[in-house]
Write a structure and sequence with these properties.
The chain has about 140 residues and is α+β, with helices and mostly antiparallel strands. It contains 2 helices and 9 strands; from the N terminus they run ββββαβββββα. A hairpin with a 2-residue loop joins strand 1 and strand 2 (about 25-30). The relative contact order is 0.25.
Length: about 140
């Protein structure tokens, strides 16, 4: 390689796939270890498509069987106090339709203790959560009407 050549280095970040699950003009959210509310979901497994990941994660975390409707948001989010996300994590958020509610909430997950709660859409603006999630909720809610 000559001195004037520039070597390209890939920018590699984890991918987190999230579900936007509405029910009765409310949205299901998960409280994370940073004491923020976020969409339920998790990291993309090797060889798995994002839509498959969100279906798996909604069943694991909420106990809901869902149908993926549409990708709403793709956002690179930097979490400064994180083990693997200090360079960013690509968050893909999908609107999901509940097909069946047959399982249980996952109260102890990969990220530690988990808390799930359903919030009326009118309360979302007051919640402690990153703005890109609030924007995704507003966008998805309009699409879902």
């Amino acid at each position: 390689m000559e001195d004037h050549e520039v070597r390209y280095q890939s920018y590699m970040v984890p991918i987190s796939v999230k579900g936007i699950v509405f029910e009765d003009d409310s949205i299901w959210l998960r409280k994370n270890e940073r004491d923020e509310w976020e969409f339920p979901g998790g990291k993309l497994d090797q060889g798995q498509q994002p839509e498959e990941t969100v279906v798996r994660e909604m069943l694991e975390e909420l106990g809901f069987t869902v149908k993926v409707k549409d990708l709403v948001s793709a956002h690179l989010y930097t979490i400064h106090r994180s083990i693997d996300e200090t360079q960013g994590v690509l968050v893909l958020s999908y609107i999901c339709e509940i097909i069946d509610k047959s399982g249980n909430f996952e109260l102890e997950g990969e990220g530690g203790k988990a808390e799930f709660q359903k919030f009326p859409i009118s309360e979302v603006e007051k919640l402690q959560m990153p703005n890109f999630y609030k924007e995704a909720i507003a966008h998805a809610y309009k699409r879902n009407q």
